[in-house]
Amino acid sequence: MPAEPTLAVEQEMFASGIPLIIGIDEVGRGAMAGPVMVGVCALGPGVNSFPQGLRDSKLVSEKKRLALFPEVQQWAPTAVGEASAGEIDELGITACLGLAARRALIELHEAGVQVGTATVLLDGSHNWLNPALAQPLPVVTRVKADQDCAVVSAASIVAKVTRDRLMMELDSTHPEYGWASNKGYGAAVHMDAIKTVGLTPHHRASWVK
Hints:
The chain is 41% helix and 14% strand. The chain contains eight helices and five strands. The model has no long low-confidence stretch (mean pLDDT 96).
C-alpha cells in the first residue's frame, strides 16, 4: 500500500535555507482528448500540518478529491495551467507540460507569490519544467513525490479536479465519447466513438491511429 504523504522532504528543504517550495504535478498526460494540466502549490516554512486525508489524486475517490479541493486551496496558494490538444499536436506532450506549468507559475506570481525565490519539487525523474522557463528555477525531481510529499499531493488534487470538471463540461456537448466517465482517456466507448463519429477540436489528432 502506498505510503501517506508527509512534510519530511519539505521540512528538510526548508532546513537547508530554501525560503519557498512549489510542488508540481501533472494530469492528463496520456489522454486522447482534452488538455494536459499542471497543478502547482506554494509552501513556506513553518507549516507542520496539511489537510486530513490528503493523498495523490490517483489514490482517492472522486468524492474525496472534491472534498479536498477547497481545503487544499485554503491551506496554501495553488494554481493550474493547461496546454490544449492543439498545442500538444503542434509542440509535443513534453513541451506542453512545461508550457502548462509556466502558465500556472505566472498565475501564482500574479497572485503575489514570490515564484522567483522558490525551489520546485517536481514529481518524476525528468526536469521538463526549466526548458519552458525564461529564467530557470532550482528543481528537485523525486519519483513518487505525488505520493510522498504533501505539497505535491496538493498540486495533484487541484490539477485533477480542475481537469475532471472541464472534461465533464465538454461531455455535455460531446456526450457520445463518454468523457464524463473516461475524462478523455482511451476507454472503449471513447475509441468506438472516434471510429464512428470522428474527432473533435478537443482531440489530440496526432495521437489517434
